[in-house]
Amino acid sequence: MSDPQTKDTPIRRFVPPPRAGGGDGSAAYRWEAVDLLAYKADAASPHRDVTRQTLFRRDDLAGELRYFEVAPGGHSTLERHAHVHAVLVLRGRGRCLVGDRVHPIREHDLVTVAPRTWHQFRAAPDAPLGFLCLVDAVRDRPETPDARALEVLHADPRIADFLVGR
Amino acid sequence: MSDPQTKDTPIRRFVPPPRAGGGDGSAAYRWEAVDLLAYKADAASPHRDVTRQTLFRRDDLAGELRYFEVAPGGHSTLERHAHVHAVLVLRGRGRCLVGDRVHPIREHDLVTVAPRTWHQFRAAPDAPLGFLCLVDAVRDRPETPDARALEVLHADPRIADFLVGR
């Protein structure tokens, strides 16, 4: 929540990644005047190879639009919260857990994460997964699963496979 | 403003347009369970060849995400309003007027339309212009320019050229 407010510059250009990506995470989609941030510098939120960019955040806008990019083989934090996530996949492909279902997702698919629903995004082994995520500017903090919640999730073999990246 | 609320379906898949578009506007980007609407069935809002799809609209979301697609050579209404537009170009290329400047825009560029700023989007003659537009769910109605405002806009030759599609 410490991102600077996006400025009033009317146009901020897309900066396509270099064709020959170094595989070091530097080849994420980028935009002029948008900072690339590590996704949650928080040891309590396990994740792998995810970056976050706030594309639109303004005092006079009730929603906030962020871009997350998960590197090939990486994943976002498994979490839930009261606020809704409205997601559009912008790049690549992967899978997502929403509640008790795992879904394959690819470019331009829409994902709705309803309130209090466990969710996680995983990139394919050989492709990044970049997605736009619309949230309310005013929202609650995510919660990660405790041992009991993890046990319940792992009881479903399809969810268990997803959670370990199978 | 009469769109149905988008449903709780967690995944709505992107439906890529057929490769050989008929050139009749039917080749817009589409999504499962998202209605394709004519953009403003209102004679007072001049526009050409624009469709609108509401991708995310829910009672528990403060923002609303729409997708507009302007067919090659078409344009949106010239208008302004108190609410902000936060735009990401999803497809194609064209130009936009924001305030007193005309900007070329292409895939994934970001456009911010600040409050009370005249704006219009035009597709290239040979390419569509499809863009996501984030707005507040609660917002004011757009205003179109009266004769005096049009005169002021046309006094700038670059704006005048843009407004007639040159």
Distance between the termini of chain A: 32 Å
Encode the helix/strand succession of chain A as letters: EEEEEEEEEEEHH
- Uncertain runs of chain A are none
Q: Count the helices of chain A. How many? A: 2
Task: Walk me through this protein's architecture.
2 copies of one chain form a homodimer. With 166 residues, chain A is mostly beta strands. Chain A is 9% helix and 40% strand. Chain A has helices at 147-154, 157-163; strands at 11-12, 14-15, 30-31, 37-38, 48-56, 63-75, 85-98, 101-106, 110-113, 119-123, 129-136. In chain A, the strands form 2 sheets. In chain A, strands 4, 5, 6, 7, 8, 9, 10 and 11 form an 8-stranded antiparallel sheet that branches. The longest helix of chain A has 8 residues, at 147-154. Chain A is globular and about 50 Å long. The termini of chain A are far apart. The relative contact order of chain A is 0.18. Chains A and B meet through strand 1, strand 6, strand 7, strand 8 and strand 9 of A and strand 1, strand 6, strand 7, strand 8 and strand 9 of B.
